[in-house]
Each structure stands twice: as structure tokens, then as C-alpha cells.
Amino acid sequence: MIISPRSSPQLTNNLFSRSLGVDLVEIAKAKSFYKAHAGCLNRYFSEEEISFIAENPESCRKLAMLLAAKEAVFKSLDSVSWMGTSGFKDIRMVAHDDKNLLFSVPGKFGKKKVSFLKNKRYVVAVHHQNVGGRPPKMEVACVGI
Amino acid sequence: MAPNEKNEIIKNVKTIISQALRVEESKINFNSSLIKDLGAESIDFLDIVFRLEKVFKIKIPKGELFPEKLLTDAHFVRDGHVTPAGVEELKKRIPNGHWEDFSKDPSISNLGNVFTVGMIVDYLSEKLSAVNK
What we know:
With 145 residues, chain A is α+β, with helices and mostly antiparallel strands. Chain A is 35% helix and 26% strand. Chain B is built from five helices and two strands; from the N terminus they run ααββααα.
């Protein structure tokens, strides 16, 4: 079961106080998006992000990872639940190594590590930050279902 | 704008939304909510914007079709809810939105539900009229 602020806002607000963000992207949808709009990606994605997608033979899966991770980060960090199209531009991802990404959100945090797991059909991004008196601890994982 | 021009816009918008959301055109009407009725997700909003730009040969600046900046203004948003002033401002910008339900519970998490097919058609009608003047 996937619990997200969008599907169960009351439940997630009570349980996680918006410290958890979850998003699922179907790889087929990312593939269709990439096929139709590869030439427009620079309007919402940085050069590094486009390189991350383009330099990999699994471009569509990488795009799905970026989209899911951005949405998950947004859901966990912001009190605003409508990300809009600008959210894709504001949250930046850079490749860390083969399996991990770093993300940054202008004015909020420095670069933080993002980890991924995925399967053939879906990418699920889960971003969790601990809130309270301690400095925020960030973890993002993408798990296949 | 002539009625046949608006009908052409409606027809093209329905086709675009059908392709982007993989929904049958027969299930799409003027008042359909993109999220609540047609199941749109964030990636779909980008997809729809890009498709509209290609088909109508226009540029849609960020935040112009789907309002975003308004939501960072403390006068319009407080404690996760759109203030009465914010609701009024949104209604002005999106006259064809589903405002009845939203006004009862103006939580920002409900905002996506007000975005309708009709809102896109009206936006394009105004935009194309301005371009053709």
C-alpha cells in the first residue's frame, strides 16, 4: 500500500507531519513523455539532469526516477500540496554515482543524498526527513513494486 | 472569438487531454476536473502544457495556465489553506474552476481538483485572441 499526502492527506498529516513524501511514476508513462517531449526538457530540467537522462541507455527509467524523486521531495518538504509545473524546475537533482542522486532545494537545504531501487514497471520514490529539534536527516529511496 | 473557432479549440483540447491522460474522449467534457475526474498527475500537467504549445503553436509561461506563484503569497495562503482573499483571486484567474467544493474546504491539497477542461479552453481562447489581434 502506498500512503501519500494526496491519497490520504489526513492520515499522512497525522502520522508523519509532512515529513514523508511518496510518489510513484509508471515507467511507460515516462517513456511516452520522453518520446513526445525530449526537446522541451530544458525548460524544466537542468543541464545536469538532462545529461543524467540522456547519457544512460535507460533514459525513460532515469526520467521516471527524476520525476518521482522531485515529487516525493516536494511532498515531504513543503506545506504547499500543489507542486505545479514549477516544482519540477525548483527541485534540482544531480548524479552522485550509478545508484544515487543528490538533490537540492533553493533556500531550504544543501545537497542531500538520494538513493534508488526500482523494477521494470514502476519507480516509487520515498523521501523522509526527521523533523524536530535535530537537524533534518534526509533519505530517499525508490522501490520496485 | 467565433463559435466555430472555440469549438475547434475544445475539440483539440479534448484530443490532447485524451492522449496525455489515456482517457477516452467521450469521457471528457467541459466541466471535467483534470485530477478528480480524469486522474491527472503532476507529470501530466507538464505533458498537457507541452502538447498545447505544439498544437496551438504558442508558448505557455510557467504559472500562467496553472497558477503557482499565488500560492507562495502569505496574504493568499495561511496554514495550508487558501485565505478568502486567495480564493477570490483564484476565482478571478480561473473562472471555470470547480469552486463550489473548494470554497467549503479551501485546503491547498484540494486545489488541483478545481482545474478543469473548461479552464484550459478559456485560457486558450483568450491567449489566441490576443495573439491574433
